[in-house]
Amino acid sequence: MRIRSVFLSSLAVLFLVTGSTSYAAKSKKPEPVTIYNKSASDITALYVSAHEKEDYCINLIPNGRKLPSGGRLKAQIKGDFSKFDLRIESYDAYEDYFGFPANAVTVELYGGGRSKFTEPLPEEMQNPKIIPLPVQPQIIPLNQTVQTTSLFQR
Questions:
Q1: What is the pTM of this model?
Q2: CB 37 within 8 A of CB 109
Q3: Per-residue b or e along 34-58, where b marks 16 or more CB atoms closer than 10 Å to that residue's CB
């Protein structure tokens, strides 16, 4: 009977720990993404869509404004998707960029469909534990001469 009681209480603790962890992961607020315009053209519209949906309905740049060449824009991209696509418009054309992960921290647009992105560090690397290294002081008596070498010889 005691073994069954220990097993059931262990199972309940395991359920509570894993259940609360998955809830925290789902309810975490999405981080903003910084989009860099590294192309030669100003961007007049920047649309977002879930990956391969071609439903570009959200424009991140307000009407009448632009994202100049060399400029950047910080945006909150919300949605229930693992990847997203971007469509940029300049004064006379548009280009599509595909397959950015939903957790992207930065997106760099170079023009001609070329881009790159960065993702956040894994959680275990975001707050690393600093382990002090043991330092053994070397005590040299005052009456002892220490031999040193020089890189510069005469």
A1: 0.60
A2: yes
A3: ebbbebebebbbbbbbeeeeeebee
